[in-house]
Amino acid sequence: MKRQLRRVEWIREIKALILTAPALLLLASAFVLPLLFFGYRAVDNSDIVDNLPRTVAAMPGWQNDEFPPDGVVQALANDISALRGKPALAILARTLNYHRPGYRSLIQKTASSLQEAAGADARAKLIGLDERWADKEIWFLLRRESSRWTPLFVLAAVDLERKADSSIGMVEANRAVYQRVFARTLVASVAVAGICLVLGYAFAFALVRLSNVLGRVVLLVVLVSLWTSLLVRTLAWIIILQRNGVLNAALMGVGLTDQPIQLIRTWFAVIIAMVHLLLPMMILPIASVMRAIPPSYVRAARSLGASPMQAFWSVYVPQTFPGVSVGVVLVATAALGFFITPELLGGPEHQMVSYFIAFFTNMSVNWGLAAALGAWLLLVTSALFAAVYFLIGRTRSVQ
Description:
Elements: H1 2-43, H2 46-49, H3 53-58, H4 70-83, H5 87-99, H6 103-113, H7 122-129, H8 136-144, H9 152-156, E1 160-162, E2 168-170, H10 178-207, H11 212-227, H12 230-241, H13 246-253, H14 267-291, H15 296-303, H16 308-319, H17 321-336, H18 340-345, H19 353-363, H20 367-398
Antiparallel strand pairs: 1-2
Helix pairs in contact: 1-20, 5-6, 10-14, 10-17, 11-14, 14-17, 15-16, 17-20, 19-20
């Protein structure tokens, strides 16, 4: 009997796995594999290792902190000569330029001017072509980056860099950008989630108390807002908030201002548009949980002597925490990845991490830095998930 029961359960699990296999394959191909690919790109150093094979092979023979031996210099000269006229030269020059601006021109100038690379005079030839080859910094850079993996982009994505002595420190102040961008993105996400929570909770509380017909109409309005294109709704806010827009016209019409107020290209425009776009994602999960709460629970608390406010906060609110947690996670996560709305309604100081990921992916084609920024954004999102889970769990345990 026990053996037959195990066999039946095993067959049931196999059937369930077969039914969910298409969804699992779609999840793996559309989510897991891209994440693994971008994680690999964030630390990939093949552009240097594959294009400078002789130099990388000669690096183990250079152990001190003096100028590299003739074998390393000769190997580099041979590698650069071999890349002349090939697309790989541009890739190598671009990658070294990520480490230090100016190295692109150095590599391209050397490749076009280096006629031959043989004999012990390779050092003199390189320095004769460009005096930057006499600086040990580029040689130390090549030695540090002779591995298949590099921390360059992962560190650069949070304004860190590896120094000449292999220590890790902050980049120069005029190059420090991304820590502020991440802080800006996180603050905007939390602010939007908080505003949506207050508005969405009140709206959902009122929605579940409407009559069936009116409640369905209001719910349809919420769904239509959710289904409307994000770009269309963002463009509508541009019409409303521009200097000659609807809001400024209304403010001047009632006499609150004598001239148009600068509303576009401000945090006010970005936040209010994001709240409008994401509010349905807060309302729907909270409302679905509120509908399942029996009204008799609150009446029972009232009959035991609790005031209306005590019954609401002690009995009703804790039961809505599952919907609140889902709504907060949905809104905050979506806000972390917003791109179009800050781009259209905000200025340069309002752009979030997703803008830079798109820029490095499509414009500058720096996939390493784009992948590193995406990896850090994934880490921030995971931390947000953990924080919401911890706070909701602690609150429920206290209640």
